[in-house]
Amino acid sequence: MIYEIADDIKKVIENKCDAYEIYIDETKLIQLDSLKEELNFAKEEIETGIAIRVLKDNRPGFAFTSNLDKIEQTSLKAIDNTKLTKADENYAFAEADKVPDVKKVYDTKFNDLSLDESVDFLKNTINIASDEGCEVTGSGFSATEGRSLVQNSNGVSIENKGTGFGLGLSVTIHKNGEIATAYNSQSSRFFDINNEKLANEVCNLAKKSLNTQALTTGDYDVVLDYYAAIGLLQTFLGAFNGENVRRGRSILKDKLGEEIVSSDLTITDNPLLEKGLFTSKCDGEGSASQKADLIKDGVLNSFIYDIYTANCEGIKTTSNGLRDSYLTTPMISPTNLEFKFTNKRDLSEIDSGVLTTSVLGAHTANPISGDFSVEASNAFKIENGELTSPISKAMISGNVFEIMKSVEGLNTEVKQYGSCIIPKLLVHNLRVVGQ
What we know:
Layout: H1 2-13, E1 19-35, E2 38-56, E3 59-65, H2 71-80, H3 109-112, H4 115-131, E4 135-152, E5 157-175, E6 178-188, H5 195-208, E7 218-224, H6 226-238, H7 242-246, E8 265-269, E9 292-296, E10 299-300, H8 307-313, E11 321-322, E12 331-332, E13 337-341, E14 344-345, E15 352-360, E16 371-383, E17 386-390, E18 394-399, H9 400-403, E19 408-410, E20 415-417, E21 420-422, E22 425-434
Parallel strand pairs: 7-15, 13-21, 14-19
Antiparallel strand pairs: 1-2, 1-4, 2-3, 4-5, 5-6, 7-22, 8-9, 8-13, 9-10, 11-12, 15-16, 16-17, 16-18, 18-22, 19-22, 20-21
Helix pairs in contact: 1-2, 4-5
């Protein structure tokens, strides 16, 4: 069906503009949410969305719709919208190239998954947590099948198809007048999510977070659990965005070829990764996917670009023009970021430090300087290589670009949360203010 839709759009626009790009997205979705232990939202839907970009006299035009009865109207609207934009010769669409294969992005279990089975899966997760003595404050489950097509006037025609599954759980526990909370989630291309493991981990974290003790203010080695690491890494990763570099909003501007992080660390943007959450044959513009080492052995090797920003810089796109949906034009974004450490440390090697499961306020970090001050959540003392008492409220401050210069990976399971594929991280000399 999506190819027929594309043909209908071409008939309308191909002789009315200089170049065009057609993006069609078909999504099948099951989504569930609970408030406390009661299911309060359930949705099962199929949606097809169309996004059209055109160029006329170097002016871009964009329009979208989910109404298949308005294909012609939307096509003409995209052309008409070129009158509202400025001409810029850097606008262009992807060139045809060899399309790579991708593996392990589709789970046939989605085809047999019903809404009732999804409800049972979520209820089972809630029951496991309740049996562990925790009060579930919220949970959610989603299953998605996505199919997209990118075609343009340069001969690009690439179809992507994949599935995704996600489960999240938030709990509270009360004991002797104290309250502790915890949250975790799992995401996968396959329906291999272990809800029993997730529920047990979340409840155990909440239980361990009771009976907190004050921490003496000082400079500490800090272990960033997955959520804590990702919270702080967002500021760091924003500096690799080619648009930020071009506009002088990145501290890494003019530092290509310099060592900017620990020499033990290589960071690879890998849209071809098996089972990666952002694995695809091409980006949202139709540029064939390609791996790129952003950092190689600690040295800054590359930024990430879409076509427009790359053209402004006189270089080639890195195939990082991604779309959230048909509702938006492509935006520069990483795919699967693999953090690979040559050597890893064990928790047992840390004599004194702090582990924080997550951080609150990471979004307030200065996006250019990298300075941050965040609240540690579900944090614990590390003494003689072991986690000991939970910590009452504490603030952690530092500079993300400075801590990355000596960051180390811990010898833990490597997981993907969002774009980041990481172990737990060990950073040094962070100021931790006890309360």
